[in-house]
Amino acid sequence: MRRAVWSLSCLLLVAALAISPALAQAPAPQPPDKDYIIGPEDILEIQVWGNKDLNQTVFVRPDGRTSLPLVGEIGVAGKSVQQLQDHLTNVYEKTVKGAVVTVIVKEIRSRPVYFIGGFGKPGVMQLTRELTLLQAISVVGGVAPNADAEKGFVLRGDKRIPVDFNRLVQRGDMSQNPKLEPGDSVVVPLADAVYVNGEVKAPGAVKYTGDLTILKALTQVGGLTPLAAGGRVDVLRGNAEKKERIRVDVDKMMRSPDENPDVRLQPNDIIFVPQRLF
Question: Per residue in 178-189, pLDDT tens?
Fold first, then answer.
């Protein structure tokens, strides 16, 4: 038993060293490999060997594009680092003799996982490599004493994956240890809270009050991001036995509140704001 506890402690320590919370927007511990797929909001360093004046540090906009000298507007999201390097080398070779382009991912911002509710340090971390829930727990400060640890879950899109954190952490039950994916929200319920995740500026728990509505909850988490599909917002209600999904158009609510009244929320409701399709 002592050996099992020691092994679990080592695993959590390794996890703490393997990933970095995105709350501080720390760069990846090591540069991603050439197969890494670039995403919106990543920060790239472009080095053009042969003309240092063309070297740039650029931000990938929410639409997946960026701007480069002599190239102009270019779509980079969805390309691997190697594909972008090869493409830019071909482009710059036409004007810069012997040009060789190197692309470095300075900061990953396109692979977030949100930790909401009863964690010691709820917030956002970026997935820089394959990671399980157990490996991530120590980084977010563990599960808070006042949390309902047995009723945790991972929200993946509109899919809800139940997680019993007591079984996972105290007993080492690996059936409660899913691999995390970009965009996941890991939730440990707190009393009298509503949870907001997806394309909002500060995903997290909102304290429930009797007059809390969707628009009020969205305001408390900073509103929608530029990537948000405001016309396809879901409110997920209920538990594993009985689930209800309420589809709302937040864009219409804000434009025409008389014709599209706000929706009052209930304790433990989950608001999910999906990403719009380009």
Answer: 999 998 999 998
